[in-house]
Amino acid sequence: MDHSRSFDSVTGLKNPNAVIRAVIAGGADAVLTPYGTAQDAAEVLGSTGLWLSVDTTPQTVVPIVERAVRLGVDGIKAELYPWCERGDDHLGSYTGKETVMNMVNLSAECKKWGLPLMAEAIPFGWPGADKRTPEVTAAACRVASETGADYVKSFYTGDKESFKTLVDNCSVPVLVLGGPKAKSDRDTLVMVRDAMDAGAVGICIGRNIWGHDKIEAMTSALAAIIHDDASVDTASKFID
Is 0.85 surpassed by the pTM of this model? Predict the structure, then answer.
């Protein structure tokens, strides 16, 4: 649920606490939000995990981690952009290499506090989708894991064989992200089933859940795959 931190189309997150209630009812283990949503979610979270989505610079690593600890989150997630040049994407004056080094510093600070860190690997930045081959995506995830992060959040590479190569090449557990709005529910379920079969430990999906007409049902379908090893056909029954 962190799209409202940086994306320009987040109408499905107008009432974040309603979304949180729905995904909890559907069996979600945790939610990922920016700071503003996180600090207002205490009354609805219960025992559900809370991960904080952050942007950091070398100057803000320490205060952001300390702020996350004070909020009582279960972990934080930040992005890195391997191979972006200065001025690419929304990096401003930073290069992709500098975002990698910033993740190293962020990891070190998180380790001081015992706070888990998830690194979202975005090779060549968000506009670089045409360069995001399975090989490049796998390499970016390895870079992310070498920063000291505890988990890596990755694009799905399109097939089980190449995604297994990515997982096997990454030194920490991998969660798969949802990507663009799916053409159908079955497409999302098939992707998640294939990713789990290839070795992913879970998912970190946004718009294909909170942007769904049946948020709770979609969450239940995905939870069935992840928690109960359900087939796509079995999981689909939660949505039908």
Answer: yes
